[in-house]
Amino acid sequence: MSISLTPEQIRDLARQINEAISGLTDIEAILEATRADLARARDLERRANTAKLDVTLLSLHRCAMLDTVTVEQCSAV
Question: What span, in angstroms and rounded, lies between the C-alpha atoms of 16 and 22?
Answer without folding.
Answer: 10
